[in-house]
Automatic annotation (TrEMBL):
Domain N-acetyltransferase: 2-194
GO MF assignments: acyltransferase activity
Protein name in UniProt: GNAT family N-acetyltransferase
Keywords, in A-Z order: Acyltransferase, Transferase
Stored PROSITE patterns: GNAT (PS51186)
Keyword Transferase listed: yes
Enzyme nomenclature, EC number: 2.3.-.-
Organism of derivation: Paenibacillus mendelii
Top-level taxon: Bacteria
SUPFAM superfamilies: Acyl-CoA N-acyltransferases (Nat)
Length: 215
């Protein structure tokens, strides 16, 4: 059975477990900074914001994560010293420049909108409904009326899952340097409780792009 719990509600430190899943899920992108998984865990372990991170457990083991951030609370607080300590001065500085605007910037959404990001499942638990369980928990239990997420065109499995959950595409954006990055489009999707979205259209033109950490 999959059990969902907010990271902040644990009575013991689970940052290492969350970092394990995060690195496992995004290793392809994170390996640009270093291929050493231990260093990657050390770099991001203290950056997660527990109030907006939700974790999935199977048989007492954390196997999935999902963040639902908002205009007051980011998913991660990017910290230059942590990145420099893990990656070294040059690569740590580059990582900070890459991630600072992506995660430390305030989301341009109203109080009734949640932004879903940092969705990851450990390799051994994929295909078992972990991410779907996390989504359903957040969509049912959190007080937001609207949910927004971003996915790239090459991530067809995630795109289909989001469609199955009821998310609709509202915009596609061509990606610059697509050959280097490995995808052509960023796809923006939304879901509203009750099935009717009254989000203002001009809101969608102001987005935070999570350069490396796309779903």
């Amino acid at each position: 059975m999959i059990q969902i719990k907010r990271m902040a509600d644990y009575d013991h430190d689970i940052r290492d477990d969350v970092a394990d899943v995060f690195v496992d899920g995004y290793y392809r992108n994170l390996s640009f900074f270093t291929k050493d998984r231990t260093k990657l865990k050390a770099a991001f372990c203290n950056l997660f914001c527990p109030d907006v991170f939700y974790v999935a457990e199977v048989d007492g083991e954390i196997v999935g994560i999902l963040a639902c951030s908002n205009n007051r609370q980011p998913a991660m607080a990017i910290d230059k010293p942590s990145l420099k300590e893990a990656f070294g001065f040059l690569m740590g500085s580059m990582a900070y420049l890459t991630l600072d605007k992506e995660f430390n910037a305030v989301l341009p959404y109203e109080d009734d909108t949640g932004y879903i990001e940092c969705v990851a499942t450990s390799e051994r638990a994929r295909g078992k409904g972990v991410s779907t369980a996390l989504f359903k928990h957040v969509m049912q239990e959190l007080p937001y009326r609207h949910y927004i997420l971003e996915v790239v065109d090459t991530n067809v499995v995630a795109l289909q899952m989001y469609k199955n959950l009821g998310f609709d595409i509202y915009e596609r954006k061509q990606e610059k340097l697509s050959r280097i990055k490995g995808f052509k489009e960023r796809i923006y999707m939304k879901w509203s409780k009750g099935g009717v979205s009254d989000l203002p259209v001009d809101l969608f033109s102001c987005k935070r792009l999570h350069g490396l950490f796309y779903s």
